[in-house]
Write a structure and sequence with these properties.
The complex is a heterodimer of chains A (294) and B (323).
Chain A (H helix, E strand, L loop, with lengths): L11 H36 L5 H5 L2 E2 L4 E2 L2 H32 L4 H15 L2 H15 L6 H25 L3 H9 L4 H30 L2 H4 L21 H10 L8 H34 L1
Antiparallel strand pairs in A: 1-2
Helix pairs in contact in A: 1-11, 3-6, 3-8, 4-6, 5-6, 6-8, 7-8, 8-11, 10-11
Chain B lengths: L31 H19 L1 H17 L2 H4 L2 H6 L3 E2 L6 E2 L2 H32 L2 H16 L2 H20 L7 H25 L3 H9 L4 H12 L1 H17 L2 H6 L17 H8 L8 H34 L1
Antiparallel strand pairs in B: 1-2
The chains are: A mainly alpha (294), B mainly alpha (323).
């Protein structure tokens, strides 16, 4: 925005009111940022001592009170990638249809209504759905594939939203130029529109990946278990996952106190993973915006 | 990135300027029939893909209903929704979810008492007051706050905030309605803040200029012109924030205390609907009464979020008409 409110000093009663309110606005913004840093700093300061090569690369031992979290890291990464594998083609395809083909009709209205309602469905309800549909009706059981499908449906609205925004940002002149050179509409979309929107689409996908990696409720009954003796060998195996591991260690079992350092360590690994992906996406996006501005 | 639920709010920009095939140039005859079929195939497969969202929502509703409706063969809807006792594993069991509903509603209301002022004020600061440089740093921070996994916020609430509350207020347990509301507030603030900020930024600059030219102070401009003009967008933001709070699971599961009672004070432990579903589904016998009752609780929760979503949409529609 090129506009900013004037900074002239207002005197008298109105000036005092303004000073008080503006301070409140600043404080509110400050508290929120502070909350972010408080959580991150707390987890880092308590968790850093638990991090070691052994912690990251070994199987848990002695009924979870010792050893590492390798199966959780592998489980979370494969769940998130699987979810993206489901949501990316569907999400990008939907976004292309909505932005490039659809006119404001009834069907499109229903599609948009469905997407925005899907975005509002509570994560635990996705879990219930995954349990009833993927695990039971499709007979996939509690497995990596059920968890990934459930997470994939959950991430769909995020990817659609981000991709649509990226497609909208492609200037119309690109489309006109391509059509003017004799390309068909589909050729234009494939070779001009999507490639120029791709960085934006990928940024949105990284954000969705991070979100899928951090979710617990959708995988609680569909993919994640507290303990597996081995690493998953097929997509139909149950997996361990970082968020679920934190939850179970922190709330259930008889060793809550003893495993505290493992809980902090696992939480640190999870936020490093999730915030790392988000930060990466945010940095790429701000570079893109700067590039577009020029 | 715009908030995923905000797609309805941002006033729809014109569709990309594809030439109108009816009035525009005639279809390219040089490329012939193969391209025409290819074009048709591309469009219709993309259309089919975009129906998956409808299918997904439809299947979610269908399976909730299928697995939830058997509940009403052993408990009436009235007793289910208004029953005071939730003892699903007792003999005979009690399936009354009123304590879970009041738990959800109270934690959502109290968290929005914190999240609404804080989120909206942050949005006003970011959009109206903050120098661009500061806003550029603060906005990603708010986004990162949104991306913190809920289990981490719940964990932080359990090990850091709850003991603090217990000490400060001298109460038997820090895991209660109040602590859960605070943690939940920080989960809905990013939603409220991002959408409100979008709404504020879409208020035309001329409104602000006119107000300032009439002699209003910057604060008067914000409170009497900019915020009222963005009000329905802000309303949408608040409703979506509350919708997020009522559906949030891990935080209430870990921090709310877990007692299925109708709370009498803000320091009572509660058991909101998502917490009950998440905690009990693992132990409920497959397709037993308890299992079905948890799906019926899922239906209730789903209806709440649909209601919030429809309210948000109608608020944003008003916004669009005005804009």
């Amino acid at each position: 925005m090129t506009f900013s409110l004037p900074k002239n000093i207002v005197s008298g009663k109105r000036g005092t009111a303004q000073k008080i309110w503006f301070t409140l606005f600043r404080v509110a913004a400050g508290i929120n940022v502070l909350a972010l840093f408080a959580v991150i700093a707390f987890i880092i300061s308590r968790g850093i001592s638990a991090i070691s090569w052994e912690f990251l690369s070994e199987m848990p031992r002695n009924s979870m009170t010792e050893g590492g979290i390798l199966p959780c890291i592998i489980g979370t990464v494969s769940l998130a990638l699987g979810a993206l594998g489901v949501a990316f083609p569907v999400g990008v395809g939907t976004a292309i249809y909505l932005n490039e083909y659809a006119s404001q009709g009834k069907v499109v209205g229903v599609i948009r209504f469905a997407i925005s309602n899907l975005a509002g469905v509570p994560s635990v309800v996705f879990g219930l759905f995954g349990l009833a549909f993927f695990c039971t009706v499709l007979n996939l059981g509690v497995s990596l594939v059920s968890g990934a499908l459930t997470l994939g449906i959950m991430s769909l609205p995020v990817i659609i939203g981000a991709s649509e925004e990226a497609l909208k940002a492609v200037p119309n002149t690109y489309r006109e130029a391509s059509l003017g050179l004799g390309a068909s509409k589909w050729q234009t979309i494939c070779r001009v529109v999507v490639p120029s929107a791709l960085p934006g689409i990928l940024t949105g996908s990284i954000l969705a990946l991070g979100r899928a990696a951090g979710e617990t409720a959708p995988i609680m009954f569909t993919g994640a278990v507290f303990f597996t003796p081995d690493l998953p060998s097929s997509v139909f195996d149950e997996v361990m996952a970082l968020p679920y591991h934190i939850y179970v260690l922190a709330t259930a079992g008889t060793h809550i106190g003893e495993t505290r350092h493992l809980q902090y360590g696992t939480a640190l690994v999870l936020i490093a993973l999730v915030l790392g992906m988000n930060l990466f996406a945010i940095i790429i996006r701000s570079r893109l915006r700067n590039r577009n501005r020029v | 990135m715009t908030h995923p639920e905000a797609t309805e709010i941002t006033p729809k920009v014109d569709l990309p300027g594809w030439p109108d095939t009816k009035t525009g140039p005639k279809k390219d005859t040089l490329t012939g029939r193969r391209t025409a079929i290819g074009e048709w195939l591309a469009e219709s497969s993309l259309f089919t893909i975009s129906l998956i969202s409808i299918l997904a929502l439809g299947l979610i509703m269908l399976f909730l209903l299928m697995e939830g409706s058997p509940t009403f063969s052993f408990v009436s809807i009235r007793d289910f929704v208004l029953g005071h006792f939730w003892y699903p594993t007792d003999e005979p069991p009690d399936f009354g979810i009123l304590p879970l509903i009041t738990g959800s509603v109270s934690v959502t209301l109290i968290s929005s008492l914190i999240a609404v002022p804080s989120g909206v004020m942050t949005a006003i600061y970011l959009s109206e007051i903050a120098p661009p440089r500061v806003a550029e740093i603060l906005k990603p921070a708010i986004e990162l706050l949104a991306s913190l996994p809920s289990v981490v916020i719940g964990f932080f609430g359990m090990v850091a905030v709850a003991p603090l509350m217990q000490e400060v207020f001298d109460i038997p347990t820090g895991l209660n309605l109040f602590t859960a509301s605070i943690m939940l507030a920080f989960m809905s603030i990013p939603t409220i803040c991002t959408i409100s900020e979008d709404a504020l930024r879409s208020v035309p600059i001329t409104y602000r200029e006119a107000s300032l030219a009439l002699g209003a102070t910057p604060f008067e401009t914000i409170s009497k012109v900019t915020v009222p003009a963005a009000l329905s967008g802000i309303t949408t933001a608040i409703i979506l924030g509350m919708s997020r709070a009522i559906g949030e699971t891990m935080v209430v599961l870990m921090v709310a205390g877990g007692a299925a009672m109708i709370p009498e004070s803000i320091f009572d432990p509660i058991r909101p609907m998502p917490a009950s579903i998440a905690a009990e589904m693992g132990e409920a016998p497959f397709r037993g009464d308890h299992y079905h009752a948890l799906f019926a609780t899922g239906i209730t929760l789903f209806l709440f979020t649909i209601l919030f979503n429809v309210l948000a949409m109608s608020a944003s529609r008003r916004f669009r008409l005005k804009g």
